[in-house]
Amino acid sequence: MRRISFFFSIFAACAPLFAVPTPAAAGDTASLGAAIKAENARWAEAFGRGDYKAIGRLYTEDGALLPPGESKIMGAGAITEYFTRGYAGSRPATVSFSNDEFYGNDQTVTEVSDTEIRDHSGKVIFRGKQILVFLKRDGSWKLHRDIWNRSAP
Prior knowledge:
Elements: H1 2-14, H2 26-49, H3 52-57, E1 59-66, E2 73-74, H4 76-86, E3 94-104, E4 108-118, E5 124-137, E6 140-150
Parallel strand pairs: 1-6
Antiparallel strand pairs: 1-2, 3-4, 4-5, 5-6
């Protein structure tokens, strides 16, 4: 009997480690999706202005970019520097997000979507896919992980 009690105690202590977050209800998914789309719009507006400091502020302090073929970029300051360096000397472009899927709850949302960047003439200069992880911090959604890759031509 003591053995059963011992194993039950161990199981009870470890159960939270194996908990799986439940998906949001249909209504919640729509509101979460709307909130994340608003964050995407803020990102796209800042990108279109070439305001890479504003982009950095959209990430958590320990946020990370996971760019294809490059090292992980950690921290909001490093993310600002990545975009500033990467787009130095070029005119800001427009970015759009589409075909989005959202998974999560009121604290963590994962987005899977397509992205497209166009130059000022309207020519597509990048088309890709991305996975974004958003965390709620102090009542606001912040990007925590950002990974993308190029789509086939």
